[in-house]
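Researcher: Sequence recovery benchmark, item below. Answer with residues only.
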């Protein structure tokens, strides 16, 4: 096992990055680092950071590279990231990918998984997505917890994310194509990219990612 298992998961919004990262983090005992979750938690806590980014998040735009790079740098200083991390939603621009190489140094990104899902499917998934504000559980709009507005797991409020409204979805997917899709070439040119079909059952997606990790002798 390498000293650090740093895995980057790329894919359009709604491709299933969060779901897969949660599972893989447990399997490999490394933290799931989601910059979106960190930023949303700051907004919810109404911290100085939260107040700074709230409007940007609601509009579905990207917060500044400097800000997220500092957040991720600080996150990697926490002891639980000593063995690596599953990066979800970071890097999202070339500047962030370059900063990540600097932050991780020699023992850098070991694999970049591209979760491939057609645009029609992610649009449908995002429009019907509902989330628990307390525990982060994801529901469909047709699930009981979504209809009742109360999470069956923790009793928290189940809501639709502001950025899962149609205008914001469109903007986020455009931003992905413009700013994040170029990262595929960045990791491909380093021999680190593996593409996985995200349009299959969650267990099958997890299995395909784990196969790629094992084939490379990473775990
Ligand atoms: P999604 O990928 O579904 O848009 P995330 O939870 O990953 O959702 O991110 C939510 C929002 O947080 C983004 O729309 C953006 O405003 C902000 N954000 C998250 N990660 C980054 C990042 N690496 N760079 C800039 N903004 C980010």
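Model:
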């Amino acid at each position: 096992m390498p000293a650090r298992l740093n895995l980057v998961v790329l894919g359009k919004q709604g491709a299933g990055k969060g779901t897969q990262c949660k599972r893989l983090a447990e399997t490999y005992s490394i933290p799931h680092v989601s910059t979106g979750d960190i930023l949303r938690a700051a907004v919810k806590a109404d911290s100085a950071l939260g107040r700074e980014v709230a409007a940007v998040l609601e509009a579905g735009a990207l917060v500044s590279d400097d800000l997220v790079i500092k957040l991720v740098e600080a996150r990697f200083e926490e002891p639980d990231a000593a063995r690596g991390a599953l990066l979800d939603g970071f890097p999202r621009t070339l500047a962030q990918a370059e900063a990540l190489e600097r932050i991780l140094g020699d023992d850098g990104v070991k694999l970049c998984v591209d979760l491939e899902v057609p645009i029609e499917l992610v649009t449908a998934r995002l429009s019907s997505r509902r989330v628990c504000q307390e525990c982060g559980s994801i529901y469909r709009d047709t699930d009981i917890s979504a209809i009742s507005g109360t999470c069956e797991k923790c009793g928290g409020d189940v809501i639709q994310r502001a950025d899962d409204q149609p205008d914001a979805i469109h903007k986020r997917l455009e931003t992905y194509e413009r700013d994040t899709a170029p990262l595929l070439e960045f990791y491909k040119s380093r021999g680190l990219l593996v593409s996985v079909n995200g349009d299959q059952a969650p267990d099958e997606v997890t299995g395909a990612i784990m196969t790629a990790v094992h084939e490379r002798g990473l775990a």
